[in-house]
Write a structure and sequence with these properties.
CATH topology of the largest domain: Alpha-Beta Plaits
Helix content: 10-25%
Radius of gyration: 19 Å
Shape: globular
Distance between the termini: 55 Å
Structural class: alpha+beta
């Protein structure tokens, strides 16, 4: 009887193939303003995570303060295997993992590295999500290979790096000759 129940459970939730058992980057949706706390707790549990932040100036009671804010509010990038998802979901303030067809959606390593580079160079800032515009690919520099939506401004070009499945975007300033069109 136990074997039958286990077999039935395996049919309902099939085990992923060997490729899915390799650590990949995924996105965890967390309670608002808990991104850094979740990242600290994941680190304590030996799970690699990444919360991209940007620097902004806020004013309180006529005083100016420089603050670090998450680039993607309510989202934490997590590097884990399929089997480690329960350790992530057990972290307080983690609501759920972003999924596609019932499996945690994965993000290519190159996109995470490009995002890390943009944050490190302080060339990233939040931007409203856009789905219209010309899709372009960065063809040189530290963000080479990253794709996004182009938004032209009088003095410079800004590429909007759209993470479609979480409907968030980041804008990065680039030179026009660093871009090529994508079809």
């Amino acid at each position: 009887m136990i074997e039958t129940a286990q077999a039935l459970a395996a049919e309902q939730h099939p085990e992923p193939d060997d490729a899915a058992l390799q650590p990949r980057w995924h996105v965890a949706y967390v309670i608002t303003r808990h991104e850094k706390v979740v990242a600290q707790e994941l680190s304590r549990r030996s799970v690699e995570s990444f919360v991209p932040v940007y620097h902004a100036v806020h004013y309180w009671n006529k005083r100016r303060a420089q603050v670090e804010l998450p680039l993607f509010p309510s989202y934490v990038f997590v590097r884990m295997t399929f089997r480690e998802r329960l350790r992530v979901l057990q972290v307080p303030a983690v609501v759920h993992l972003v999924t596609f067809n019932g499996l945690p959606a994965s993000i290519p390593e190159e996109e995470i590295e490009a995002l890390r580079t943009a944050v490190r160079l302080r060339r990233a800032q939040p931007h409203p999500y856009h789905s219209l515009g010309d899709r372009v690919r960065i063809k040189s520099g530290p963000l080479k290979g990253l794709e996004g939506i182009l938004m032209k401004q009088p003095t410079s070009s800004r590429i909007i790096v759209a993470v479609d499945f979480i409907h968030r975007s980041v804008s990065v300033e680039l030179e026009p000759n660093d871009l090529e069109g994508v079809r």
